[in-house]
Amino acid sequence: MGQQGEPRRVQAYDGELGAAVARAQEGDEAAFAVAYRIVQPGLLGYLRGLVGNDAEDVASDAWLEIARDLGRFKGDGAGFRGWTATIARHRALDHLRRQKVRPRATALENDVLDLPGPHSTYEQAVESLATQQALQLVARLPRDQAEAVLLRVVVGLDGPAAARVLGKRPGAVRTAAHRGLKRLARLLGGEGVTDEGPQTLGESR
Fold this sequence. Notes:
Elements: H1 8-25, H2 29-51, H3 55-68, H4 77-99, H5 110-113, H6 119-127, H7 132-138, H8 143-155, H9 159-166, H10 170-191
Helix pairs in contact: 1-2, 2-3, 2-4, 2-8, 3-4, 4-9, 6-10, 8-9, 8-10, 9-10
């Protein structure tokens, strides 16, 4: 893991991503394809948590907006991740409103949050988040925790960037991510994954 809890893999690609975005803004279509390949996996994982099986459709809408407004973006590779995540989140919320879908509430037991878990299990929670099973587990978290975890670990944003996407204070996002990862560690370590439960994020309250 890199600083602030982001995967080293994400950090390593940010230089390449920033260069690709700069070329894409000059009209290089191949460079835009490079940026898409770097960003899309994490963005799609985030959207799966928000809208479930409609993630690919919402991602397509988001990328249309990203391509349209690319010239307005200013920043580096990490900034581009945050910008695209913000657009994707807006499109996901629009989609949920259109479908009149309300994510089902998920209770989070306070005693579980206070249980110390083995470090290896915590790391397993982080490293497994790209898998479909882990996304099913994330969907069982309260919405604020689930979004914080997805933005920090799957999309690869740092605390301040994730906070900007969510419109919250960085400290609140760090706390939500920490609690969410502790809950995931508990689920991965003892409860496993079932096919039951919500397919989109639970409510934060």
